[in-house]
TrEMBL record:
Coiled-coil annotated spans: 376-418
Keyword Nucleotide-binding: yes
Protein name: Uncharacterized protein, isoform A
Domain Dynamin-type G: 76-324
Residues of the full protein shown: 57 to 474 of 808
The keyword Nucleotide-binding is annotated on this UniProt entry: yes
Cellular component, GO annotation: mitochondrial outer membrane
Compartment(s) where it occurs, according to its Swiss-Prot or TrEMBL record: Mitochondrion outer membrane
Amino acid sequence: NVESRLYQSNDKSPLQIFVRAKKKINDIYGEIEEYVHETTTFINALHTEAEIVDKAERELFESYVYKVAAIREVLQRDHMKVAFFGRTSNGKSSVINAMLREKILPSGIGHTTNCFCQVEGSNGGEAYLMTEGSEEKLNVVNIKQLANALCQEKLCESSLVRIFWPRERCSLLRDDVVFVDSPGVDVSANLDDWIDNHCLNADVFVLVLNAESTMTRAEKQFFHTVSQKLSKPNIFILNNRWDASANEPECQESVKSQHTERCIDFLTKELKVSNEKEAAERVFFVSARETLQARIEEAKGNPPHMGAIAEGFQIRYFEFQDFERKFEECISQSAVKTKFQQHSSRGKSVSGDMKSMLDNIFERITIFRNLKQDQKNLLTERIQGTETQMMQVTREMKMKIHNMVEEVEEKVSKALNE
Ligand code: GDP
């Protein structure tokens, strides 16, 4: 069934690198937390028994408890984030839906996403929406209708609507991938704000182009700004609507090589974010709409080609899967580095600091113990001295008494003789 198939593919997915690393670092931090708690209790006890640690030191130890707890909270929330950009109607929402294997985001004419939409996994099988600045969970049976309604509303273009979708419905959501759909780069003048608010923590960017036209200045400009703010962003380029090329098979190859060359030049020569070889692995020719249809058919138990739009379905379908594989490898490796490297070095420095503080306290305890021993030794010496003195005195006294007795005896016998 679909569930077990999802589960199997999930196990082999490169996303597991992130999932396992997250579990591992969370476990390690769990141990660090225990260690910090134990140490703090021990330190506080030391303070009451003998004033070996002072107030400042105790406060420092307690500050580690809070620090570690804060890091643990961030760690539990860490995820992999992918953001989609491109002109309106190039198919950004369709690509996300195809990856999610379900039509979650509204797409098509009249459903232009005019704000940022984030899709993330929810626990407990719940599906709901949250708009920016509100804690209210808008619970929905049919999320599509609600999302459609939201798109009609006049929301600020740089605001964020969060869509929570049951994790178990899609392996990418289950493995902590968060999708961000953006309004078209052609409709906004606030690209800078967008980047600051929604992109700085993205692990991967996907530029969705329309394969029927060439890359526009607005699309290029956006990524120029991104690569100025982030060092070497991970960018994938999808030439979408490739199904349309089936109508003109005679020029398909030449169009493809032209687009490929332009995309590679953009990544290597203009943005300078990757070398030729890497860039070649980041450019794909797909049909999001067709892939989504194929997956919906698959979920019904039908063969995927039932979703085909045009000739050449199998090649486009493989290309989409190839994109997903490379994307998964890239996002999990990047997220492990950006999210966990920092936490692991902070964890190391916290335990290092605590160790050197404990070493210091241990040294003080040793000195304290030696001092006590010295005092004890001194006392023992004194006692021993007194004992010898006493023995001396006793011996002298004995002699004296002996002499006295002898003297008395002598006197008595003398008196008797007289
Ligand atoms: P967005 O504005 O970039 O999010 O674009 P949408 O995903 O809403 O797509 C706009 C329209 O293009 C919709 O009617 C889609 O069904 C259609 N579309 C998207 N991807 C493809 C594709 O690969 N092939 C074809 N033929 N149509 C597509």
